[in-house]
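Can anyone check this?
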Amino acid sequence: MARELAAHPEDKRQTERERRIAACLDAGHGACWLKAPRIAALVENALLHFDGQRYRLLAWCVMPNHVHALVETKEGFPLPEIVHSWKSFTANEANKILRRTGDFWQREYHDRFIRDDDHYRNAVVYIENNPVKAGLVKTAQAWRYSSAWSHEEQEAGKDAGAPSKRPHAVYPPSTTRSVPVT
């Protein structure tokens, strides 16, 4: 891949690299441990665990081989520590469930600051529609381990008179970041 990327102008290489990685992930390449419902639920619950305390989880999606999370960090809880906490806890627990040892996640992660309202909306749509784009479901709300499903369940609960599980933010705070966790 390095040679192929070298053919692109330098200012376009990183974008092309990210596009190719996303295409590989969407195609289901790599370990797909997260497709097991027990592992996907473990990861989703880890994302939700400190929501409202250390960060605000604005959108998420647990895919078969990677995770997307849109978070607003809170003072005193830098993003690298939050991601490390997610990865460390879920790797240890998932490895126990899978009766395996070794690396579970890639060491690095990709993050970006959300610039404005449009960027925020686009990030939420991208995250929540990732299973649709990958051909796993027909609608974002049909993917069980995502904020789109969670919001759909909230709406169903409201209709039944049940309290909402969590608020859905509609604005992009300046510390909001999109974090695919692979």
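Reply from J.R.: I decoded it. The radius of gyration is 17 Å.
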